[in-house]
Design the sequence.
């Protein structure tokens, strides 16, 4: 009987602890993320995006809101590229950090990406939320160097014209993935923009 009570008590404690941890991480992150909550990209979507983003080992990919870090790890594995993820939600940040241990090309930072300068990136990946896309479009236009590529899952960048748009073949995961490229002049639309 005692063992049974201890097991029940342990299960309830772990469950309550987990709920509190998730609630705490959401409360910490919510004012910054403005709706872009942790929702990892499906593997097929990560693969589709990266297959359309050939990179060299010298290139540098940044994931704005990297969640559990699956995109940066996949890009490092596929291309040997240097990859950095910024994540403000402590729970996915810790998961991303732990899963990226022992991968020298991958770094994860617990930071608000709005405060980071993106001028060194060759590729920027994002899967965020419609409310933040207008502000993000301006930040990327200001900071990215000419030729830098941007991939945005699900939501387009207002004012930018995609170089291409793809949909993964898997029916459940076929929301659009938009690909962009910074033009030769940071202040000007790309030559492909109208
Ligand atoms: C929809 S998830 C995408 C995760 C990952 N990029 C993927 O595709 O699997 C968006 C993530 O962005 C993070 N995020 C949103 N705004 C952020 C900010 N300003 N700074 C850092 N992380 C942010 C959220 O906490 C969330 O984990």
Sequence:
């Amino acid at each position: 009987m005692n063992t049974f009570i201890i097991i029940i008590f342990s299960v309830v404690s772990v469950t309550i602890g987990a709920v509190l941890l998730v609630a705490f991480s959401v409360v910490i992150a919510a004012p910054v993320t403005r709706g872009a909550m942790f929702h990892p990209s499906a593997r097929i979507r990560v693969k589709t995006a990266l297959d359309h983003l050939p990179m060299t080992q010298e290139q540098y990919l940044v994931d704005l809101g990297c969640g559990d870090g699956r995109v940066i790890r996949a890009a490092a594995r596929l291309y040997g590229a240097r990859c950095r993820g910024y994540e403000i939600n402590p729970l996915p940040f810790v998961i991303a950090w732990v899963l990226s241990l022992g991968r020298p090309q991958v770094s994860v930072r617990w930071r608000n990406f709005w405060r980071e300068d993106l001028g060194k990136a060759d590729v920027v990946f994002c899967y965020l939320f419609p409310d933040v896309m207008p502000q993000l479009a301006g930040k990327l236009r200001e900071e990215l160097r000419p030729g830098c590529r941007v991939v945005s899952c699900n939501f387009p960048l207002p004012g930018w014209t995609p170089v291409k748009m793809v949909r993964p073949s898997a029916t459940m995961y076929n929301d659009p993935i938009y690909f962009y490229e910074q033009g030769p002049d940071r202040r000007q639309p790309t030559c492909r923009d109208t």
